[in-house]
């Protein structure tokens, strides 16, 4: 590794640590609802807090995941009570005690707002509970995670793959929540990706062979059904039999997948799946760098040949990790330079400098912030927090000469 690469890594790691500890973490601490539990569900672009807004269960799971990993990364014991606060809200309110599973959303007081059971939502609860178990050693959290694993495998699958949306008592219903771009998808790449992500962490903290077998299945699904080798992309929306429904590049999901699949491969440590999937992740990173990395940042998506040029907060965060992961694998400096360049864009345009704020939801292609909420059920510390965790860990590892 040359001096320039070492310097870029040192700056990237140090600045992401400062962003995590000095900005993202304090912001989400202030969102804690001391009176009714959980965390407040909405902060507008105007920075007006709505304490009575709906609390998305995905948001709460992601906050639980965030505080658990913030403690793991920074080692500050003052972080742990925030993770426990999110865990208590998940356990006491987000879980359906009668039918099983996690609700879609709750009212501000913790009563049920939307009782939809979505596989995507179950997966994020598993992801969060696995991380909380890792820092707390609370067996109850692991037991809840395995209960949700059994539920997904028992009620949310068919002979082709993973289904999407269900009523409160697990009767299938249409998938409005994860369908867009004018299609109604019975299966999605996005849900499959986050089941993989959740199962990867559940296997990492438990070593359970049932989870490993399902990871094998999902990796095979990505290689055989999701990955389009001719277009060098993942397909996004599918019918029940995993036939693609639309001509769509989701640049953010592609670069996110490139490193999440590699992380799964590293956790499994099985050469058969390395041979199957590692060439795919290398191709994804190269393709995204070639076609979507423009103006110091990443485009959002391309539908039927037309680019969406908004710069979305989570797409930029995932591209930093994805390109850093590609640099680790290839030692090609162009990927490290891209990660550092996008981080500069994030600092300049995505990080909201106003007091009491965090990151903007999105900007236009020139970096001008757009009027979107700072917090809502999808706007959370999962992507930008995870970017910080990954960059801190990866830069430290590379600079120490381990990889």
TrEMBL record:
SUPFAM superfamilies: Six-hairpin glycosidases
Lineage: Bacteria, Pseudomonadati, Spirochaetota, Spirochaetia, Spirochaetales
Key words, A-Z: Isomerase
Superkingdom of source: Bacteria
Family, per entry: Belongs to the N-acylglucosamine 2-epimerase family.
Organism from which the protein derives: Treponema saccharophilum DSM 2985
Protein name per its UniProtKB record: Cellobiose 2-epimerase
EC number(s) given by UniProt: 5.1.3.11
PANTHER family: N-ACYLGLUCOSAMINE-2-EPIMERASE
Record's catalysed reaction(s): D-cellobiose = beta-D-glucosyl-(1->4)-D-mannopyranose
Function of the molecule: Catalyzes the reversible epimerization of cellobiose to 4-O-beta-D-glucopyranosyl-D-mannose (Glc-Man).
Pfam families assigned: GlcNAc_2-epim
HAMAP family: Cellobiose_2_epim
Annotated GO biological process: carbohydrate metabolic process
Entry's Gene Ontology molecular function annotations: cellobiose epimerase activity
